[in-house]
């Protein structure tokens, strides 16, 4: 599938773009173009175009504004060591995007259209990919309901779009590790809800907890399960993993309330490749405290497309602060292994890289 390309008549001057790429802040600077494609129940998907980035015009009665039919993805383009731009597992993003669409009663987008659209978009915007440690072009594919209708039912018209933002490291460099605030008042998702879908409402519902975490001097909020408020699930925007003194790893299991992270899945595979015993099983906040006190839990880290791999130093639960050892050899090794694949300097054993012609 191809997309009509209409290059902007006013591209960012080279000197201005280079200045913007020197220290890109996450999600604040955007590239010159955007991709759009429209859907109607009668005609299906059509009118795919890559054109100048511009404001969107939607009706005040558009269903997304009233009933939140909206989903998105997060992915990145990188420079390989040989000077070729590449994507990491775009097919996995396409599949997850459609799972989110099904959960939100939205039309699925053919996976080949998703991947081909990303590839053509990055090929056009390749000069916006920053170089340097931790730098990438963050890609945001999203879809929302555009039909002007106030009845409560799935919309019949949608817009799919892709925008991009050059980005550096998500968290400040030089950090001694993340401080996580254990939320006891708010939950992220409940069984039967939309926790495993990548929809905006999941994030909006967690913003108040993130604000509380920030006021407590923490970087992120750690959510517990909705039923018992004791089982660790995930952070506000990333998954979590634990490393024990015997070298094994544990991460909360997927079950409908946790987003199936592609970085999460990749790290689990890399750990298994390295001979690490990996368990996907429930892990309680009480057990975490006991394991830290006994010296069994020696590392923990957050992982996601934006954050990649970020070590965790402290859990804050009310007036308790539970600190982990400063050394993070397993976290560092897994992060390095993943970033080496991103850079194309390590063997791509699982065929995760998609090079952009």
From TrEMBL:
Class in the EC hierarchy, top level: transferase
Gene Ontology terms for molecular function: branched-chain-amino-acid transaminase activity
An annotated GO BP: L-leucine biosynthetic process
Keyword Transferase set for record: yes
Annotated function: Acts on leucine, isoleucine and valine.
Family that this chain belongs to: Belongs to the class-IV pyridoxal-phosphate-dependent aminotransferase family.
Coiled coil region boundaries: none
SUPFAM superfamilies referenced in this protein's UniProt entry, alphabetically: D-aminoacid aminotransferase-like PLP-dependent enzymes
Record field: catalytic activity: L-valine + 2-oxoglutarate = 3-methyl-2-oxobutanoate + L-glutamate; L-leucine + 2-oxoglutarate = 4-methyl-2-oxopentanoate + L-glutamate; L-isoleucine + 2-oxoglutarate = (S)-3-methyl-2-oxopentanoate + L-glutamate
Positions carrying N6-(pyridoxal phosphate)lysine: 198
Pathway: Amino-acid biosynthesis; L-valine biosynthesis; L-valine from pyruvate: step 4/4; Amino-acid biosynthesis; L-isoleucine biosynthesis; L-isoleucine from 2-oxobutanoate: step 4/4; Amino-acid biosynthesis; L-leucine biosynthesis; L-leucine from 3-methyl-2-oxobutanoate: step 4/4
Keyword hit for ATP-binding: no
Name of protein: Probable branched-chain-amino-acid aminotransferase
Pfam family, one: Aminotran_4
The organism of origin for this protein: Sphingomonas sanxanigenens DSM 19645 = NX02
This protein's UniProt keywords: Amino-acid biosynthesis, Aminotransferase, Branched-chain amino acid biosynthesis, Pyridoxal phosphate, Transferase
Enzyme Commission number, as recorded: 2.6.1.42
Co-factor(s): pyridoxal 5'-phosphate
InterPro entries, per the entry: Aminotrans_IV, Aminotransferase-like, B_amino_transII, BCAT-like_C, BCAT-like_N, BCAT_family
